[in-house]
Amino acid sequence: MRGFLVLAARILVSGALLYLALRGVNFAAIQSRLSESSPAWILGWMGLSVLVNIVQIFFGALRWREISGPCGAPLRATQAFKFNMIGTFFNQTLPSTIGGDALRLWLVNRTGAGWRAATYSVLVDRAIGLIALAMVVVVSLPWSYQLIGDSRGRLALVLIDLAAISGGLGFLLLGHLPWKWLRTWWPTRHIHACSLIANRTLFDRHSGPRIAILSLCVHVLTVVIAWCVVRAISAPADFSQVFLLIPPIMLVTMLPISIAGWGVREATMMVAFGYAGLVQTDGTMVSLLYGASSFVVGAIGGLVWILSAEKAAKTPDALPETG
Fold it and tell me: Where are the domains of the chain?
């Protein structure tokens, strides 16, 4: 019953935020904008966004492979890619990326790695992705400040990035603290173990550079996906503006308060476009089409899941705790 209430609450959050994002949209202006482009032009750019999305998932799989080995759950590149594609399908039904991560964890456990190693591989992969995204926003902050003229927008940008980078650095610092209770107290021992693995992989002279490059590729490809959508509707925004706006928006979208980021992404992108001096309606439209591209990729992931051997086993209703 509790799970149903939580899910219902998140559906309501998504619906409310979508309503707030869409109630001020000038649909006549959208129709006019779309009429300026041929259906072939729109479908071509949207198809490219789907293709780039799949390439992004592959780069994410390569990074996960680098991380999974030190966690005790080694994966082949094709295996990691397959699990990531299946995860995208479940991301469309549960809050943020929680559904996909839970399915990835379950799939890795079924390879014989065990629940603990599977959990560590997914958590460390997610943490490193968040840290890399925060670093991208930090590095681009001077240019973002120039793009965003509104003082409230600048403050929101700094606070979002400060929270993300503080959380990421705090997670890495945890592995360097000498306190014994961190390794023995049950609420912290698994987080401490994940921190140790993250430090080991990130600062290793062999795996570290590969993980850093792959993480950068993943986040740059997120921008490219959004850029393809911008081109599809011929919105007056150049690539540099999209590059500066999308990473902070993705940080906010990662909050697990809505279904697959719907509502949160639209509201955030509408506000961000406005702060950057762009048309807010374009921001909402870009977000909706970005979500549609992700939905198509999720549907492809669903086909992978249906045709996979892993589906032959019943998916558990709840994942057991790691010991």
Answer: 37-312
